[in-house]
Write a structure and sequence with these properties.
By secondary structure, this protein is mainly alpha-helical. The chain has 27 helices and seven strands.
């Protein structure tokens, strides 16, 4: 392709009078990398690169020789000017981001929000689905803070510090022991220990606010008044990638819920003591008023969560400042009042048994199970209105993932509490320990791991059968070349392993169903017996008693080990850049979606990346009138598709889409059918001028787009050969590697498809007139 001098637009934004922009000469390929990221030099195949626009977090790069390509002499080129959009630091830059692993339940429940089935004309049911997921996310925040209260308030300040035998083994608790000073009173110990979960809440609030400012505060291309009715997907709505209002409200509500949980843990024990006969009447009245205030605060939090969902049809910049500031401050004031109330002098009050944690954790577990069941009914009703045979679990993927999020939260809470109890008490049994429900929840881990082991064996058997079936297909595909049984087996095995990705829904279904049943059994067992599994099975058959004791011991240690591994991995990632990148890969898929259900989930990088891409594409096409190939690999293809939906029609007419190794249909289309289902992808095909998709049968992530009708063959090129040569050839004198998900640009088909897309773009279309947007960042 020829390079050309850039035509400067006239004052009205169009071409100069009497001139037509030479769109056939200005061509750009905007490369978007995938999972794990890469460097600009690797993407552009040139170590000398310059940053065209952007910052240290995400930026667009060019080769140094192409820095001013549009304004250079009109020398002919072999292809378009390549640009690389590098966004890997959004997920794997700072070492502290490794600690986001501890927020895994919040990220998982946020994914459940976006997994709803496709529905047309069921707006109320769709809103109910979102409301149920938001309430489930709120319960996870309460569960996390309740677990922190269990460790700090119950196990440490109430039980261990109040027991001379336990406090004597930990000198740092000496000043909290009864009779050792002013802090020895039970209520004051609780008030002091409340600083730990309160500080955790403050940290979560700060991280949520800071990451929103750094990632998600970028305004999309459309102005504040832009509105656009959605078609088969909401991804083309102006406000989809700008969830400021909902994010601020959820942040305030979850922060207030966390502080109210701490306040209830501090004040409820004192109020329960004051209600006993013979206690001071004034304190009893104050306790009742405090509990009523806490209940009213909890009602206000639930109302805020239920009141408003996402505002996507317009760019909603309202931050609800009074609510966002007032709700957390009111909850903080109630926490301070609870601490003052609990610290009041009560000479006869002594800490005994446990704080009322069994009721709290039991109510949370029951509420989460009920929410998931109702969510499944709603998802099933939505799926029935517009059945999609490719949708994962027939539309029940969202409830299944929400169940896993609740299970992760319960497991982490139970494991940390049990390990803290063992560390404080050792084996001397001087304190009652955590609520029995948490011990029951930890005990279900061994049978669940056994089930997962069975599922892994099933996958291995399935892979073996697939490899046998692929053996003949490989021999037929490379017919005429010298046979090599080892080479054939290797290619067939890689194809079989890549095909296992499509078995993910079945694994999720079995795991979620088993988790729901085991969780219900744990709740029933703890409620009915009031004892740990080992103690409850004491009179049963020796085999059953031994199994219960083994599950109880193993579950506690396994969860504790998992927690230690997470912390260790996070510390290693703080020092090791390669480890930081590895951990960042885990979030590339999970944090693509905005934080619509949980504000404390890891931040959404797409709310920065998609506006970056749309601004770059719109400004470059508007200034040059040229043609642009938007080239996305793996997760980059999802960003590219999201950016294409956000483009104005004038820019979209100059854009061709090239995807390779793309999970658009194989993962996103199946798991997120409301946004990437068949109708949505077919609409994307109609929106862009042309689209080509490359994939390999050895790729475990990428796959065909599978558009209906004639659109499918037009977009999906037949599967690329991998390896390019079976044996040694003149073009490949050394053995060709099996590339799988990588190096698509090394295949000759890549350059061929790029040339074909550029040829299909219509260079005769005049340059679009200015809409008042800024010019190109270059």
């Amino acid at each position: 392709m020829e390079n050309t001098q850039q035509h400067r637009p006239a004052e009205d934004g169009g071409a100069p009078s009497g001139e037509e922009p030479d769109g056939s000469r200005a061509a750009l390929e905007l490369l978007v990398h995938g999972v794990g990221g890469t460097t600009p030099g690797q993407m552009l195949d040139d170590p000398r690169t310059v940053r065209v626009t952007g910052d240290d977090i995400a930026a667009v790069f060019r080769r140094a020789d192409d820095a001013d390509a549009e304004r250079g002499p009109g020398a002919r080129r072999d292809g378009p000017v390549p640009e690389a959009y590098v966004w890997c630091n959004l997920t794997s830059g700072n070492g502290t981001r490794a600690l986001w692993l501890l927020l895994l339940p919040f990220m998982v429940v946020n994914l459940a929000h976006w997994m709803r089935p496709t529905a047309h004309g069921r707006r109320r049911t769709v809103r109910l689905y979102g409301l149920l997921v938001r309430l489930t996310g709120l319960s996870l925040t309460v569960l996390l803070v309740a677990a922190a209260c269990e460790v700090a308030l119950d196990l440490t300040a109430w039980q261990c510090a109040g027991t001379p035998a336990c406090a004597g083994r930990h000198s740092w608790l000496g000043f909290l022991s009864p009779g050792e000073g002013w802090w020895g009173a039970p209520g004051r110990r609780l008030a002091l220990a409340a600083l730990v979960p309160a500080a955790l809440t403050g940290l979560l609030w700060f991280l949520s606010l800071r990451t929103w400012s750094a990632y998600e505060s970028q305004q999309p291309l459309g102005g504040p008044g832009a509105q656009e009715d959605t078609g088969p997907t909401a991804l083309n709505r102006p406000g989809f990638w700008y969830g400021r209002r909902l994010g601020a409200r959820l942040r305030a509500a979850h922060t207030a819920a966390a502080l109210l949980t701490v306040a209830a843990a501090v004040g409820s024990a004192a109020a329960r003591y004051d209600r006993e006969p013979g206690g001071p009447a004034v304190l009893a009245v104050l306790g009742a008023l405090l509990e009523a205030s806490l209940a009213a605060g909890a009602g206000a939090v639930v109302w805020v969560v239920c009141r408003r969902g996402r505002s996507e049809r317009r760019l909603d910049g309202d931050a609800d400042r009074r609510l966002v500031r007032g709700l957390p401050l009111a909850a903080l004031a109630l926490l301070a009042l609870s601490a003052l109330y609990a610290g009041w002098e009560r000479p006869a009050w002594e800490s005994a048994d446990r704080l009322p944690g069994n009721l709290t954790f039991g109510a949370l577990t029951f509420a989460q199970g009920l929410l998931v069941i109702v969510l499944a009914c709603v998802a099933h009703a939505l799926h029935r209105t517009n059945p999609d045979r490719r949708a994962a679990l027939r539309g029940l993927a969202g409830p299944a993932v929400a169940m896993l999020a609740c299970a992760l939260g319960g497991v982490m809470s139970g494991g940390v509490s049990q390990r803290m109890s063992d560390w404080l008490d050792g084996t001397r049994a001087s304190i009652p320990g955590p609520p029995v429900l948490l011990t029951w929840q930890a005990s279900v881990i061994p049978p669940l791991l056994l089930l997962l082991l069975v599922m892994c064996c099933w996958l291995a058997r399935r892979a073996w059968h697939l490899a046998r079936a692929e053996h003949a297909a490989v021999e037929e595909e490379y017919a005429g070349e010298a046979g090599d049984p080892g080479r054939t087996r290797r290619i067939a095995s890689v194809r079989a392993m890549a095909a296992l990705t499509d078995r993910g829904p079945r694994i999720l279904a079995v795991t979620s169903a088993a988790t729901l049943l085991l969780g219900a059994g744990a709740l029933a067992g703890a409620t009915a017996t009031g004892e740990t599994p080992g103690a409850a099975a004491r009179g049963a058959h020796p085999v059953l008693h031994g199994a219960a004791q083994t599950a109880q011991a193993l579950g506690s240690w396994l969860i504790g080990l998992g927690f230690v591994l997470l912390v260790t991995w996070g510390r290693r990632a703080y020092k090791d850049a390669s480890a930081r990148r590895t951990i960042g890969i885990l979030w590339d898929v999970g944090t693509f979606w905005p934080r619509a259900a949980h504000p404390f989930a890891p931040p959404c990088y797409a709310e920065r990346a998609v506006p970056d891409l749309t601004w770059r594409i719109a400004t470059w096409t508007g200034a040059t009138g040229g043609r642009l190939v938007l080239s996305g690999h793996s997760q980059g293809s999802v960003l590219a598709a999201a950016a294409a939906w956000q483009l104005p029609p004038s820019a979209r007419r100059r854009v061709a889409l090239l995807t390779y190794g793309s999970p658009l249909e194989r993962l996103y289309g199946r798991w997120f059918p409301a946004h990437f289902g068949p109708d949505a992808l077919d609409a994307l095909h109609r929106d862009v001028v042309c689209w080509s998709n490359l994939y390999r049968r050895t790729d475990p992530i990428g796959g065909p787009v599978r558009l209906p009708g004639d659109g499918g063959p037009e977009v999906d090129r037949p599967p690329l050969k991998d390896p390019l040569a079976y044996g040694r050839t003149a073009e490949h004198p050394l053995p060709a590697p099996i590339l799988g998900h990588s190096d698509y640009q090394a295949d000759p088909a890549f350059a061929e498809e790029r040339r074909r897309l550029l040829a299909r773009l219509r260079p005769e279309v005049p340059a679009p007139r200015s809409t008042g947007r800024p010019g190109p960042a270059a």
